[in-house]
Amino acid sequence: MTKIFHKISYLPEFEKDIKNLKKKFRTLDEDLENFIKYQLNLYHKQKIDNQGVFPIQGLGIENPKIFIAKKFACRSLKGKGCHSGIRVIYAYYEEGDTIEFVEIYYKGDKENEDRERILRNYKV
Prior knowledge:
Elements: E1 7-10, H1 12-22, H2 28-45, E2 53-55, E3 65-69, E4 86-93, E5 98-106, H3 115-122
Parallel strand pairs: 1-5
Antiparallel strand pairs: 2-3, 3-4, 4-5
């Protein structure tokens, strides 16, 4: 895989989230790779906004910037395309060109991101 970002990492809670979701959505590892390769590359590197990634407002965190991706194509959810209902929360450190995945969830199981988790990991 082409290296797009300097570093990509995962919080332990994210790894737990994805492990649980993979029981239901078996293509998730590959889907996440494609998400990084296409969606995050477009948004952060090519500065093309396809209305799929949004900064999360009201956290009081300056750096890193925290984003929610609302367009995430999951091949396990046939016929849904990028409107799969899977949400990805991640932090982007612009200076270090680093992506850190915070949370992944399915809208059918959970309504919103875990703001407590975000604040616990990034609030100074």
